Amino acid sequence: METSPDAGVTRRAVNPAESRRASRGWWDADADAYQAEHGAFLGDVDFVWCPEGLREADAHLLGDVAGKDVLEIGCGAASCSRWLRTQGARVVASDLSAGMLRHADAGSTRSGVRVPLLQADAAALPFAQGVFDVVCTAFGAVPFVADSGRVMREVFRVLRPGGRWAFSITHPMRWVFLDDPGEGGLVAVHSYFDRRAYVEQDEARVPTYVEQHRTLGDRIRELVAAGFVLDDLVEPEWPDDHQGTWGQWSPLRGRIFPGTAIFVATKPA
Ligand SMILES: C[S@@+](CC[C@H](N)C(=O)[O-])C[C@H]1O[C@@H](n2cnc3c(N)ncnc32)[C@H](O)[C@@H]1O
Asked: Which positions are tagged coiled coil (predicted)?
């Protein structure tokens, strides 16, 4: 079959429905490969915030979760939720993708630590107002939704007053560079201010993978507009003894500039 020049990688605007459809299809199809590549690094019962390897056990960004109601969105295989369960939290692990949730179920069986699993879009959470103390995600949902402001408002709605919201994403400044862990990824080639989505599309220009870029200021503005107070913005440094790579994250780049941003915010009491 002849390949249309429209197929391939581009930067363009993508609406929320297109973005959701692409994410669901992509993560269903990619779930096995993602777990095969990253499952060992993430562990079955462990909360790893980012490719730099920062763990919640060391960072304490969520505070003491014992006895708290916690929702993880974009949970993937839900290793974070299982770790939170072992810390005494009552956890619900949610994700858009049934493929990823199948891995979450397998992880529960392997580890013997079970948490309730829910298929849900983070932009339309099927919960009443004010039922969680903590909502969190490591690289889940937020980078993949066209209307991330809506996710912020949904998380705000389901949190109790005083509740905490923490999420990690690719550091916005990484969008300036090529997706390359080597020397090629050290040269600035894109505008930081270009908010068009990174899109992989088929011959009919239907998006098959979508990742959304916002600037640091955009992310903070979305949090504040939803009603949150920003407590911290963590930029994990690359550990000297960490030789692993994860896609475009590598020791070479990690020593020079940040690869991850973790936002920690509170719903005012
Ligand atoms: C990079 S993976 C991260 C998974 C897991 N948190 C981890 O650390 O491995 C991104 C996850 O976000 C999920 N996701 C994408 N869009 C979503 C949405 N709109 N609502 C909920 N989850 C979504 C994907 O299905 C996928 O499991």
From this structure: none
Burial pattern 118-129, b for ≥16 Cβ within 10 A else e, equals: bebbbbebebee
pLDDT digits (tens, 9 = 90+) for 45-72: 999 999 999 999 999 999 999 999 999 9
Residue showing tokens 């070479």: 252
pLDDT tens by residue, 226-256:
999 999 999 999 999 999 999 999 999 999 9
Query: What is the architecture, at CATH level 2, of domain 13-170+217-250+259-266?
Result: 3-Layer(aba) Sandwich (3.40)
Answering whether pTM is above 0.90, one says yes
CA of 144 to the centre of ligand 1 (A): 8
CA of 96 to the centre of ligand 1 (A): 7
Q: Is the CB of 20 under 6 A from ligand 1?
A: yes
Ligand 1 contact, 138 CB (< 6 A): yes
